């Protein structure tokens, strides 16, 4: 009966100020739509980065004066780095072979490299654990004597990693700025509800209602506002998740970009939980200094 | 039942509402707090309810030292007290029955207890037939009866009444006083702040007179004025 009472109070609070409650719910909705949308967008970018992982190689061109033992020591040393997944030695002969294949129709170029073997150096081809690690590997390689030059695949990876990081920063700012305004708007609905019920609360306190008995309906009100806003945000983003994923994608294969259901469920629940927490904070903030004996 | 020890209450560090009051009220007593407006009657009631804390001194109510009572225990203290005010403090959108039941609901009394006790207490105050009316459909005296029913429904040890007849005509006031007297005879301690001369003189109960926050007279079976003193016209 008490539980029923607490819920009925919360519901009648919500009904009493539909407009104010609406504004609080919309604030949560906007904030969490942006946050959840950003999460999905980041997922698609990370997918893109992931596609690069298998193909990225950092190539360290070696000086001609290194002995085979030198190269062997270097190879084992690099193999031990945590960012390095695998390493392969590519001799001058193999390089020439590869060159011949690549430029088979340009005999004049082949003639040039065959005349001067120093043009095509031997190299170590390093496979990073993750594509994003290539810059760390490059940085470590360039300072090693005996390595003439380092070439790493791609500025494209850099751009993707940067974009992913920018999105992370963006979502943090959304949470800070819009989160604060959502909390304030919820706090406002709670204040109004307290004000509307002040006579009732006064009597409740006089006849000895417990402090939590008085507070709980207001907490419930705030939590419901947060949860409803969050649920709407999840539904909205879920509905358009495919379009969000394709927004920046470099892939032409659209089938690859269906956001997996379990990813949506996992992060959706997180968002709903976050909405509830926002509501809880808003209620606590709204009751701050009120509802004392 | 109630004991005040050297109690003072100063508002904003300047306005002295209650000054060095010591008072002891036994179980089952009926005590009038009398005095002109601003003499500290209402402040004393609020202090006993722990709606306010004294600036100095100690207060015991129903066996508890309420000045040091942690705030989460205040609701438990209030359950042993019933309160009646000049403005009735009824909820306008609830019926008579609901207003009284509300006091039991919010302290978590089971439904069968509520169903049993509310009609009983409404019968006691003479409103058994008006249980489904809204407060606005009742006279002032009837509304005050509802508020007394609400104060008494949980069988408190003490009833604290702040000017309960302040908004009522003399004839209606007599009815309210009969009711409070009846409740007192059942063993409930009653403390009532009033400046109604006629009531105090007619009841001949203990009178504690206040002036500028000090107790100037404490007399059993007293009158509103000291014998020989000229009545002050308000």
Report how far the terminal alpha carbons of chain B are from each other. 33 Å
Q: Treating each run of at least 4 consecutive H or I residues as one helix, how many helices of chain B?
A: 7
Mean pLDDT of chain B: 92
Number of strands of chain B: 10
Give the distance, in angstroms, between the N- and C-terminal Cα atoms of chain A.
24 Å
Low-confidence spans of chain A: none
Please compute the radius of gyration of chain B using only Cα atoms: 18 Å
Average per-residue pLDDT of chain A, rounded, comes to 83
Structural class of chain B: alpha/beta
The helical percent of chain B reads: 25-40%
| General shape of chain B | globular
Structural class of chain A: alpha+beta
Oligomer: heterodimer
User: What is the percentage of strand-forming residues of chain B?
Assistant: 25-35%
Number of strands of chain A: 4
Estimated helix fraction of chain A: 55-70%
Total helical elements of chain A? 11
Listing every helix as H and every strand as E from the N terminus to the C terminus, the arrangement of chain A reads: HHEHEHHEHEHHHHH
- Strand order across the largest sheet of chain A: 2-3-1-4
Description:
The complex is a heterodimer of chains A (293) and B (234). Chain A is built from eleven helices and four strands, in the order ααβαβααβαβααααα. By secondary structure, chain A is an alpha+beta fold. In chain A, helix 2 runs antiparallel to helix 11 (261-287) and helix 7 (155-196) packs antiparallel against helix 9. Chain A is elongated and about 100 Å long. Chain B is an alpha/beta fold. Chain B has helices spanning 41-48, 74-79, 96-105, 111-124, 140-152, 170-185, 197-203; strands spanning 2-11, 15-25, 30-34, 56-61, 64-65, 81-85, 158-162, 189-194, 206-211, 214-219. In chain B, strands 6-7-8-3-9-10 form a six-stranded mixed β-sheet, sandwiched between helices. In chain B, helix 3 packs across helix 4 (111-124). Chain B is globular and about 45 Å long. The chains are: A alpha+beta (293), B alpha/beta (234).
